[in-house]
Amino acid sequence: MFEVIAYGLTIGGILYIVSIGFSLTFGSMRIVNFAHGLVYAVGAYALFALLPVAKGNFVIAAILAILASLPVSYVIEKFVIRRLYGKSIDYAIIASYAVLLIGVDLIKWIWGASPVPISDPVGTSVSFFALEIPLYRLIIIGLSFLIFISLSIFFKKSIIGKIVVAGLADREAVLSLGIDIDKYFAIVFILGSALASLGGILYGPISTIHPYMGFRIVTLCFAVVIVGGMGNLRGTAIASYTLGMVMAVTAWYWGAAADAMIFVVMAVVLIFRPIEL
Amino acid sequence: MLKILNNSVAFAIGVIVVGFVAFAYSASVNKITDFVIFCIYVLGFDVLYGHMGRISFGHTLYLGAGAYGAAMCAKYLVPDPFLAMAMGIAAGAFLGLIIGPIAVKTKGAAFALINVAFNQIGYFIVLVALARYTGGEDGVSLTFNSYGFVNFGNIHFLFAFCLTCLVAVYYLMHRLYGSAFGIMLLGIKENETRVRFLGYNTSAYKWVAFIISTSVSAFAGALFVINYGFANPGFMDPARNVEVIFAALIGGPGTELGAVVGGTAYMVISNYLAKYIARWEMFLGAALLIIAFGFRKGIMGYVRELVEKRIKANAMAAEK
User: Fold this and answer.
1) Portion 130-189 of A in contact with B at CB < 8 A
2) Which residues of B touch A75 (CB under 8 A)?
3) What one-character-per-residue DSSP string does B230-249 give?
4) Would strands A208-209 and B140-141 be described as parallel, antiparallel, or unpaired?
5) Residue in chain B nearest A267 by alpha carbon
6) Are residues B115 and B107 in contact, defined by beta-carbon separation less than 8 angstroms?
7) What is the predicted ipTM?
8) What count of CB pairs under 8 Å joins A to B?
9) Do B110 and A226 count as a contact with CB atoms less than 8 A apart?
10) What was the pLDDT predicted at A276?
11) pTM reported for the whole predicted model
């Protein structure tokens, strides 16, 4: 049972790290950024490509991979989402979907369509009540808590964070104070993309990486956002860990049903949620 | 000319019938039957996108529901093609009935992804959960009864039947959009809040439109199964949603003829040009980007603009 809890927290932690950026774009612009999934996949593949360059040093390769995936998200934000946002939300969604399609095909072109394994960078396990839990997973759990705490402080204490929180609550009011809210959202967008890329990097060694992983994470992030509430930062965290746990418990009984179960939970939440999205 | 484009459904149906028959017997009847069925699917998709302003990224769920409804009926009840079609449509309508109330609460991005989520559940169900009955990844192969000349194994009869279905669906959609209900949908697309202020229960209208869309899509799925003689999870694959989105967008959303033109255009590209296009998904993605940035009215919108310009020029010439 402890094994299941540890797995649930690991998956929940990665979901949280990836969802936070997705939730902020969704909350601030009502846009599903499919390209967020692309950044996640690019992070994982960049890690795969950079591991030999960094001579097997996982941390250096991870930092390089995040830096490598940032231009991707910047270009998407600048040339696709910004340009379409004011005109039509539908076309902004379609365009970000198109970007994901192109990106997935590029990944298939460069690295092939079959899944690629990445080996566990830590390798050792920790004994815990007569159970073997890979140390790497514990590191992920710790890292996700660390990110949660730093983001909480960031959004409560720093001026950028405060402006963004205010902008999520009432965009017009912030604008009328003479603050260029879009600039701050852009900063947070880049931050969220860096975290998405980190999520892909962390997920790689747990499972395998494959070109379509971006599609999958977008729908999972969406479920997190529906359950946790749009642009609701604490809700996103709670929903991520809860859904991670749902996935782990389902996978314990029936591995193939884990993803479907998430969407069932999401549907149930939607039925009882009175607000219109 | 503009009047013809706007009003004459008979003219449009004539063009569709003559066009497809000529196309079928100069190319391949088998292939063009596929084109015709796909056009029905696009018509179903466009109920939501073109007329209600809701874009679904999970519409293969309803296509697949029709396909599996028909296949399960043929495999485990009786291999009667008409009953199979009815069961396929019923499966789609049932999904619309239960998913509709949840989905139509939302719009924009949330609507798009809720359909994807349900699509994932459906894909899991046919691929894994019910694999004992659906044959899992391999799917099921089927044969259907034939009654005299009503023989769906005969490609000429099948083609004629599917074309008749397309014409019927086209006509029904045309009547639907011309009715008060269709105008209500357009009102919801433009400004739902105002329609609600007028005292209409918009949720009910959206629900009905959703069921119409899922049923028509499921009908196309059932026809595909009868055409191919098998059903596999490919019909419900969430990754294939881009096909119908692309078709609806390139043809020109919001017009029945646009859906048929778009469906045909997509099928022509995927059947005849795909072998020259090395990176298929990249091609579709790039095309979607171009559509999103500069070709929003689609082929039919473009044609309409040309015709309007010509008429204006003619009128000015007549005045002089």
Assistant:
1) none
2) none
3) EE-GGGG-GGGHHHHHHHHH
4) unpaired
5) B102
6) no
7) 0.85
8) 121
9) yes
10) 54
11) 0.89
